[in-house]
């Protein structure tokens, strides 16, 4: 069972998804299951029955601006896959739901009311021998009318600059090596910044610390201890960032949705933007906490 002490009912178990596979495979838009990965090769090989495959890089990003989708593009993507604004959408993906959490954040940005995450993601589903298929569902196209955007979940460059000046908590969820400026990206991934280091004053609370070995989220008490021990508390704004905004979506989700913090924003420009800016301040090495 998913920990029922979480602030919001936004996680579902693999058992729950399995019990509802018939609804996810139906053409009725009430339930939709979406696998979100940085590419769709794994999805093409196998996925949960009824799951739609979203490519984070080419379908959830504006290819010209390297930004979130424009409102109409978001509406067109969801509507083309049989999703309406009233659908219960369950998201999951690889890397303990990195890109699924980003999609959840983008759904929230555009005001989708009922969106959930499959606790543990793709790896948990496969490791525990839940059913898979290589069949791609064909859902009838629907009209999707998004609300928003709701800027209260998003941070921009000037918000980060103000956060530095006001000592607002900045949570850098990258690895310690990235945080210290020793590497620019996780091994095997593209280096997207000119400089290494971190935003001045940031706390390094790795995304990996929020999940268990099997990819499921830690309990509410464990998450609270993790962030509060670094001085990240629910009495002021919190800004999360990483390299391209996907890992920081995990922190945003944990803080705002599981812990119920009132004012958490995701800086989706993240280090790809900040590390390439001229004259933006950076620090290297361990944080001066």
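Sequence proposed for the structure above (289 residues):
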């Amino acid at each position: 069972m998913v920990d029922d002490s979480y602030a919001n009912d936004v996680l579902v178990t693999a058992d729950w998804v399995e019990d509802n596979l018939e609804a996810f495979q139906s053409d009725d838009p009430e339930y939709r299951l979406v696998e979100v990965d940085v590419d769709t090769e794994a999805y093409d090989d196998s996925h949960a029955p009824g799951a739609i495959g979203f490519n984070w890089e080419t379908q959830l990003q504006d290819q010209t601006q390297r930004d979130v989708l424009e409102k109409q593009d978001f509406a067109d993507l969801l509507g083309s896959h049989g999703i309406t604004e009233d659908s219960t959408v369950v998201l999951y993906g690889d890397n303990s739901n990195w890109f699924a959490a980003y999609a959840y954040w983008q759904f929230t940005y555009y005001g989708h009311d009922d969106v959930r995450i499959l606790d543990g993601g793709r790896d948990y589903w496969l490791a525990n021998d839940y059913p898979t298929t290589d069949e791609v569902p064909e859902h009838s196209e629907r009209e999707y009318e998004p609300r928003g955007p709701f800027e209260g979940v998003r941070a921009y460059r000037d918000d980060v600059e103000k956060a530095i000046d006001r000592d607002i908590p900045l949570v850098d969820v990258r690895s310690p090596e990235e945080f210290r400026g020793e590497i620019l990206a996780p091994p095997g991934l593209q280096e997207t910044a000119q400089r290494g280091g971190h935003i001045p004053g940031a706390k390094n609370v790795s995304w990996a610390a929020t999940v268990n070995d099997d990819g499921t989220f830690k309990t509410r008490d464990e998450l609270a201890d993790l962030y509060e021990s670094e001085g990240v508390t629910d009495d002021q704004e919190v800004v999360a960032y990483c390299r391209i905004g996907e890992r920081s979506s995990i922190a945003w989700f944990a803080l705002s949705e599981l812990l119920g913090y009132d004012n958490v924003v995701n800086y989706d420009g993240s280090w790809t933007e900040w590390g390439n800016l001229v004259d933006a301040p950076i620090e290297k090495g361990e944080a001066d906490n």
